[in-house]
Amino acid sequence: MTVRRFHIVMMVLVILAAVLMPATVAQEPAEIEVWVAFDDYRLDWVNEVAAEFNAMFPQYNVVIAGGRSYETMFAEATVAAEQGEQPAVIHYFEAATQDARDSGLFKPIADALGDRTEVNGLPVDLDDFIGPVAAYYTLDGKFTSMPWNTSSAIWFSNMSYLEAAGIAEPPATWDEVEAACEAIMALDNAPQYCFSWPNHGWFFEQWLAQQDALFVNNGNGRDERATEVAFNSDAGVAILTWLDDMYNKGYLYYSGAQGGDSWATVDQAYQTQQIAMAAYSSSDTTLYTQFGIDGGFTTVASFLPYNDDTGWTGNLIGGGTLWLTDGLDPEVEEGALTFLLYMTNTENAASWHKLTGYIAIRNSANELLESEGWFAENPNQTVAAAQLAQSQVTPATSGALVGGFPAIRTEITGAIDRVLLTDDDPAEVLAEAAEEANIIIEEYNLLNVD
Amino acid sequence: MISPLPLVMIAAAIGAALLGFAFVRSGVRWFLGLGLGAVAGGAGSMLFMIPLDYCTFAAERKPYEAEFGFLLVGIGMAVVLIPVGWISLRLLRGESLMSTASQPTQGTFRHWWIAIPLLAPTITILVLFLYYPSIETVRLSAHLSRLGAKREAFVCTTNYTRLVENSDYLDVVIRTMYISAAIVVLSMVLSLLIATMAYLPIRGASIYRTLLIWPNAISPAVAGLIFLLIFNPLGGIIDHVLGSAFRLGWTNDPKVAPWTIIIASVWKSMGYNILFYIAGLQNVPKDLIEAGAIDGAGLIRRFTHIVLPMLSPITFFLIITNMTYAFFDTYATIDYLTPGGGPLESTNTMMYQVAQLGVFGERADLGKAAAQSIVLFVMVIGMTIVSFRTGGRQVTYGA
Amino acid sequence: MTNTIASARPQARSRWIPKRWYAHISLWIACFFLGVPLFYTLLVSTQTRQEINRYEFTPGSGLAENWDIVFNQRHLQDYMVNSAIMTAAITIGKTILSLLAGLAFVYFRFPGKWLVFGFVLITLMMPTEVLIIALFRFINKLNWDNTYLALIVPFLASATGSFLFRQHFSNIPAELSEAAQLDGANPLQFLFRVLVPMSWNTIGALAVVQCLYAWNMYLWPNMIITDPNLDVVQVGIGTLRAGEGGGIQYGPLMLGAVVASLPPLLVFILLQKQFMSGFTLTRDK
After folding, report:
1. Neighboring chain A residues of C226 at a CB cutoff of 8 Å
2. The dihedral of CA B301, B305, B310, B315: what is its sign?
3. Which listed CATH number (3.50.50.60, 3.40.190.10, 1.10.443.10, 3.20.20.70) goes with A31-151+317-380?
4. What is the pLDDT of residues A146-190, one digit of tens each?
5. Nearest C-alpha of chain B: how many angstroms from C48?
């Protein structure tokens, strides 16, 4: 009897496998594989754009594959390169810039374009990209990767809590954050915690840049290749000390998640109003504003609070760009290039900004949004661009270029984790992280630098 | 600085002495032992040293690296000498090498060579996907090797010495032991208690049994997701049900997070243990228990003196399979419940660290991950040897 | 051992003792605590985000929406198919290879047999997990990454399986193979016409264990497969976490978890006896 049951189960399995074996149909149009480091509504947007593109250019078939986070995408892309299965276009975050350059696997966009003014009828207008963006991704005088999602770290406040505590404006400095927290946590219906932030290396870098402190030596790796980290300075220690202080006072909520896993936990806390404020990426301005509308409160976006003792110099660009693989079949390269131009054209840059809150990366897109009255209606959406526009350009605020950067970030988030959860001294912990980070750089340079 | 040649000669002499002595004691021609021992000892000493190019003894190395080198030489010698000695002794004494006597001599097919194509697929796969990667792991562990890097660099035993110098790794080992032990003990004790009820011939016994064992079919990954739903620190149902006093920070407090992993893993593995304990209890002869009852032995005494000893073979089998589960299969649970290894790395086990360091994390450091794999490998071999020595031939792995 | 379970059942009715109320109560409690996590998971899989945040303990109104996300937006069925192909191939392939090895070990006498057997047996000490870094590299070098080959082939050989059939065959009377040889049957005919029909229980035992093992594999598929179209379901359900509106989408995620668990639950509950004998056949013989 049980034998018969077993037969049935096995047969079902075999038939299932046979029937559903995906038939590999030969593709007529040139297939262009694009990897995007998103797996949420942002991926859906890319899929829609790809579908439009494929309808417009029947000779190409753009296939989008999503990834869980920048970090997993970076790791998967590394594996894919090892396997020789790199897609035509990869979406990398800013920290991967040096690794991507050193790998020799990518072709600068400028080289692929040559001096053409249009590709497949789509205009090439690199001057249309806004200043900070074009500057950040122009390396050795060459437009290297295609800017797409550009953001900065900003601050979101649930105004219901702030107003109840008698605070009219979101805090602008660390001291103001603390004062606001004191008032908010004294409320009768106080949230569980005052604020949170994703324990992602990017925020440490933002706070470091605000204090005009370098992350790595040699002018943040921009004068010469970086050989050592510089983040274990007073400015770095100040960040850890402040976070630890806020945590020990019960103001700061820390989910325990680090790096790419940390974002969603802050979303959850802010959406359910268990925190009053959050440091976050401007990438989700639309979402955080919507959280307020759905939850019956007002979300106000503001500049990321800075250290009172050092003042504010400026903030970094963050986000991702699209890298074009070198050595592609000419037809595939042409298609990939066309898609990159299409995906970042004026209309798409504007619609992408509206959907997410990433900065509209083209001047023409900003003009379009302005003429629609979008910025007037949505003041939150202007904050990130304003923060970048007001930033002084120094080596510190230009961001670091260093090999093994993603791995160094995990040392930083690990150090913050330790400082918050133990009584260890922030300076010592950061010094240990720096030591480990220096090993990472040394090993990276040993294996990758000719 | 110690050069290879004297080292090999000393190893050969030690091998010759050991095997010669063993042969004399077994009454087999001693000079055969001397010869075999010299060859095996010399070859064994080279087993790890040739891939390492005798680097541990180089002048610029630290003294304890030379000691580590001697340890490797010793392990290599043991790995070669023990099987060579055992096999040659048995052969010379004319004993069968098969431990089980079930070697049918009748009914075998002629043309012995037909066995070659029959065994070829199995042997090929084992060589390619188990034996070769074993050697490759050893080789990688002596290199600085990163995914996507342009080249590799030979670093001798630096990947190992850094494990020793760095107290973080010791923490990982201790944590792995503690999490694994907690999972195995809790899961088995609870399962035994439940099984002592579930094996009784009561109404609905088979329904109870199904309702008790089904979590075994749930994957470790799904177990992680289910417990994420229940225990996540913001909005997890457990905080709502138990109230704010039990708001322990189930996944974000480094003291509590390992226990969340333990609870999820115990929940997932209990079904398996209950299944086997029910079967084991049903094998305890009824008259034995009834005899105990006539003696007037109390319920607990009967259980500890009669039932438990009868269950010891199955308990032993379950300890081994549960240890394997706790060491390796909890990976998926950790990955979904506390991605990245939890706060303060409090759920970062040895297996999790290998995968994160080598492939999933940003470091993509194959060499260091390979060195940690070797540590894990040695522990698995140790566990297997212990299980064979104490449990005899009764136990094999399931997978 | 398996026989005793089967024979315990008729006894159960005849020797039912009402005094055993304490057993019923303890078992109720045990079943409750083991069942509650899944029960709540089932509830959440039908709930909308708002209902989940309100901690409702009744089925919600979000099943249709969750279903749409899981199957129409995230295509969980594709991952299920990948898992099914991998599971079926590993289970069938491993069984066949183990049968062949068992045949060779019992019905042939060849030089160095003990050596070959030892060679197979020693792999019990080599779990794939401790070799995973080198295996990962090797599969990449073979260019097998992102293919079913990488998911299937390394798992086709089994020391346990070979050992299991070797034990089972050596308990089968030698007269059978002598008779088969007199009839002029070749070894393969003997295997499939005589041995296999006598071995369904053992085959079933091995197959059920392997089926669950393969379906629930996570680390290796996650490592070697970078093409999302080839992800297995244990990895693929992870994509359900994110979605419209930030945070973790528990509704679709739990629906996915339930759906991904249905095949192994079905196999295990229907074939639990085979599952256990897969482990116990090698013991006590």
Report:
1. 76, 79-80, 83, 85
2. positive
3. 3.40.190.10
4. 999 999 999 999 999 999 999 999 999 999 999 999 999 999 999
5. 14
